[in-house]
Amino acid sequence: MNRRDALKLGARSLSAVAATAGFSALGSRPARADDWPTKNVRVIVPYGAGSATDLIPRTIFEAVAGRLGHSFIVENRLGGGTTVGASAVARAEPDGYTILVHSNAIESRAPLRR
Which of 56, 43, 54, 48 is nearest to 7 (CA)? Predict the structure, then answer.
């Protein structure tokens, strides 16, 4: 399996999970097409353009945008070991229109003490 095939398979898998979950991660209840989204959605990726963590969300949200009728704008916010992008999402309005896409390799480092 080459890289392109792996990315397509990953995108299909994540699409299926998102469709089955009913977008429940966006709130306490599944989002319905008639009440979300009412405007464009920002998708923040704290990795460089062209990485797998960038290409997979672009593929998925392109399909989701087609179904929901609003744009999902993918923004790469690099720096600080992904904290710049994560901080931008944390400071965003808590209205469900800013989404963080992160890899499963999140690392947390406690201050080193001697």
Answer: 56
